[in-house]
Amino acid sequence: MRIFPENLCSALDLRFGGEGLIGDEDERPKGSHVPSTASKLIYTFNRVITIAVLLLLQCLVTVHGSWIDPSTPEGFHSILVPHPHQYFAPRHPKKEKKKVPESGSPTESPTESPTMQPTPMPPFHSKAPTQSPTYAPTATPTPDVKPFVSFDLVMSDEFDVDSRTFQDGIDPMWTALNKNDYTNNALHFYGEDHAFTKDGHLNIRTSATKTEVVGFNDLTLKKQHDVKYFKSAMLQSWNKFCFTGGLIEAEVVLPGRSDVGGLWPAFWLLGNLARHTYVGSSNNIWPWSQTACDPKHIDAQKLSACLKTSHYGMTQGVGRGAPEIDIFEVQPGPVKHNTEQFIQMSVGQPFASHSLQVAPGKSFKRPGPGNWPGPGEWYENPKLKFGPESCMNIAFYGTYNHFAAAPSMSYDYWSDAISQNRQLSEKHFTGGHKFKLHWEPPSEMHGDGFINWYIDDDLILGINGTSIKGPEGAEIPSEPSYILLNTAISKDWGFPKSCPEGCSCKDYDCESAEWEKTCGFSPGFCDMLKATEEGYDEPGANYKVNYIRLYQDKENPVHKVGCSTPERPTRRWIEGNAKSYTREEDTVPLKKVPRGGGKCDVESIDACGGDYFGLCESGRCLCQPGRTGPHCLSVDGHDDVIWDIQDKVEDLRITAPVTAAPFVILTSIIVAGALAVFWEGRQRRRRNKNGYEEIIEIVGGDDDAEKI
Q1: What is the largest CA-CA distance in the chain?
Q2: Dihedral of CA 576/577/581/587: which sign?
Q3: Which of 17, 22, 18 is nearest to 34 (CA)?
Q4: Which residue ranges does the record annotate as region Disordered (predicted)?
Q5: Backbone angles phi, psi at 504, to 5 degrees
Q6: What is the pTM of this model?
Q7: pLDDT tens, residue by residue, 474-494
């Protein structure tokens, strides 16, 4: 709730240089009043008091709730979410014998428990699964189950304020990486200048920009010189904003062209214990989602439940990791379904892939990439849900994770990707569409938990936790997770399946005049990145995000906001292993975000975001309550509940002296100002009483003489 006028500067009369205020003598009009020294002192005190009040209000008052953007329309502050029983049968449904008529045939009447399973998958030699599974329950619904549950908004970013940037130390929620990417055969460099807001959207730009890098390779563990010929951006909310459970939604316009392969836009979640592209933080952590002890994985899972001791505030006997939930990864391109690499799939390019990646994965009897699983090779289809215009992603079942520096093979492990591809079209690249994820961790309320993926409110994939516990003991994630938005470029994603004759497909440089360095791209790729899109000043393909919103069930104790929760703390582990989360040139993983202090132009009406966000005082921004960042452009987001409080002196049972410094200083300023006003008035009365003549000071000509 907003408790201040929208124009706080006007309410506090902070428009310096206005009528009645003191300006420079050289700029004062002829015949104007020349203030006395005491008057100047009074005015100075008034300014100091006003600014002190504003600073104090910043410390004491919050004008918005938690991470909610005040510009989110009121109609979107709560939503109705289908009850999970609308998608999955009760964990322990009642089983009743069917009544058999005298003829010996079962009746046609529905059973007591609804039928929630989709139609069976086709035989494994079939080229594609059934396209239209059955979702509707039978005529008799589950007793005492509400069809919808009310979820409340707990986080939103509408990206309505233009010119926001996201360098480290600028924004309380987001950090734009400025770092080379050594993962997934990346061809790009992540630059902080390629993420910004414009025209009410977050923009992640990808361009054919050369970047020379001299840095530490997280994979080879050596320093190296590298040249990347593409620049893009990745936004992370790592260790700033995390959540456990809920419904997250974003409206996006995908970058580039639907029929040109090569870009890899994504919107995803990752457990806070791993920071993406910081490979040292994720080794034997990603994407583990096993809380129970399994002795055969005690080396492979760095934070295994089998460990006998508990460190960093973690609970003994609870395994930890950083599972991955891909809300979408999009692959554009011209290859149609049932052709080329998609010969056995009913979905071709462009498509969105929706995945859950967990470890431990199946270590034996796995399906091969490009082939449909045989009996017992994959997760049980009756416990998975598939939406229209989609099919199982048989091109990728997971990863074998091997670490060259590990002392033995016991540190290796399989991770699984349970994934579904959904057909997209040109409209997803030219207009906004909603991508949504409903994540319910395991709990008393929801059993083994589940995850549902949606596009424009159509269910695309549903995974029940019971379906993934069977093979190796992985679970629906329960780790506090952060949000990632990025566009990558990798020759492993969307590039031509085979190289043209005579092309080595080793070097990729759109600016090169050599055919060998451009022959491996999809036709039109370089032209797409060199073109300047309408409304932009620089070339590149722009991934645009209209908003991101997160809703949670406040009646569900598992739903939490926070990166370090009582059940899954992360703070002390990250602090104790800070080097793994930090670039070589940094001293800390994340810089603190200042409230104001950025340079500004006093003459600009847009300085510091305008009066609504802040004011420009002596060339520096001073933020209004509820705003933060050097130029006051960001909402001052915060967690409503700090689950894991920072260690303090009080933890050592040493009582620090209590201070009320801010109130003492403010009170002293007010009293001093009042005394100055009183003294000036007293002196004037004394002069008049003693018969002193008033002095005439000539500022202009004789006609301009004024008494002072």
Answers
A1: 126
A2: positive
A3: 22
A4: 87-141
A5: -80, -20
A6: 0.79
A7: 999 999 999 999 999 999 999
